[in-house]
Amino acid sequence: MHVKDVMSREVFHVDKDQNIHDALKLMKKHKISRLPVINTNNSHIKELVGIMTEKDIGRRLGSSRYGNLAPSHFHVSTVMTSEPLTIESNESIGKAAQLLIENKIGGLPVVDDGEIIGMITKTDFITTCQGRPFHEITVGERMTSNPITVNSQDRLVHARRLIIDEGIGRLPVMEGDELSGILTAKDIAQSMISFRKVVPDKYKPARIRNLLVGDVMTQNVKTVSEDSLIEEVATIMVENNFSGLPVVKNGIIKGIITKTDLLKLIMELEEVH
C-alpha cells in the first residue's frame, strides 16, 4: 500500500504572511492540529515553506524570547517549522509510518514535483486500518504505562516545557492519585493566544509565568480501561478527534494510549501480513 492510497487529498494550508489567528481559526474549523505553510508570492504553485502545529504555537508564544509581543505581531512565518519533512505519494505507508514515529510528528505533507498534493497523518492510518483485527487486542497490551503527569497547581510554563522536551502532545493532570483533567498542546496554544489578547503588554512575562495548569486544562476527560479493546479506542479517537486517552482503573491512572501506540500496532500487523 502506498501513501497515495491513505493520504488526505483535501489540504488546508496557510500563507507564511498570514496572522496566526487565521491559522488557529482554520485548525479549529476543520479539526486539525497542523497546517502546511505555503508561499504564494508571484506564483500559482503551492510552494511548501514550512509546517505549523499547535505545539509550535505553544512553544513560540510561551517563550521569553517573544516576551510581551501582541498576537497581532505573530505571523505564521514566526511560528512555523521551516523545511519540514515531506514524503512522495508513491512511497510505501511503511516508510511514512516510520518517519512519523521516529521523528515524533503527527503528519507529513505529501509533495510531488515540488508541489503539495496531500497530507498523511496518524488519523489517516487509523481510519484506513480500522477494519484490521483489533478486536482481540486490549488497551493494556499497547498502552504506555506510568505516563508523565502534572499537578493542577503546577505552573503552565513547567507543563509546556515537559511537552516540548519529551516530544509528547498531552499530559494527564492529577490531584493526588486521581485524574482531574488533561492538558494538551492545543490547550496551551489557545491559552497563550487568549492570554496575550487581554493582558497589558508590560505584565505579560510575569503573568504568563504564574498561569497554572488548572487554569487551562480540559476537565471531564474521556477515559478507557485496560480491558477496553483497541478497536473501540480507535473509533473513539477518530470520531472525537482525540490523539490520546488516559487509561484508568478505580480512579487511578494506569497509563495512556495514543495514536502513536495504534500506529505502531498497525505497522506490526502490516509486517505480519
End-to-end separation: 12 Å
Write down the CATH class of the largest domain: Alpha Beta
Count the DSSP helices: 13
By DSSP, the count of extended strands is 12
Strand order of the largest sheet: 1-2-3-4
CATH superfamily of the largest domain: CBS-domain
SSE pattern:
HEHEEHHEHEEHHEEHEEHHHHEEH
Query: Whole-number average pLDDT?
Result: 83
Tell me the overall shape. flat
Describe this structure in words.
The chain is of the alpha+beta class. The protein has helices spanning 3-6, 20-30, 54-61, 76-79, 93-102, 122-128, 139-142, 156-166, 185-198, 204-210, 213-216, 230-240, 259-272; strands spanning 14-15, 34-39, 47-53, 81-82, 107-112, 115-121, 144-145, 150-151, 170-175, 178-184, 244-249, 252-258. The chain has 13 helices and twelve strands. The chain has a four-stranded mixed sheet. The protein has a three-stranded antiparallel sheet with strand order 7-12-11. Strands 8-9-10 form a three-stranded mixed sheet. It is flat, with a radius of gyration of 19 Å. The mean pLDDT is 83.
Compact description:
The protein is an alpha+beta fold.
Question: What's the SSE blueprint?
Answer:
Layout: H1 3-6, E1 14-15, H2 20-30, E2 34-39, E3 47-53, H3 54-61, H4 76-79, E4 81-82, H5 93-102, E5 107-112, E6 115-121, H6 122-128, H7 139-142, E7 144-145, E8 150-151, H8 156-166, E9 170-175, E10 178-184, H9 185-198, H10 204-210, H11 213-216, H12 230-240, E11 244-249, E12 252-258, H13 259-272
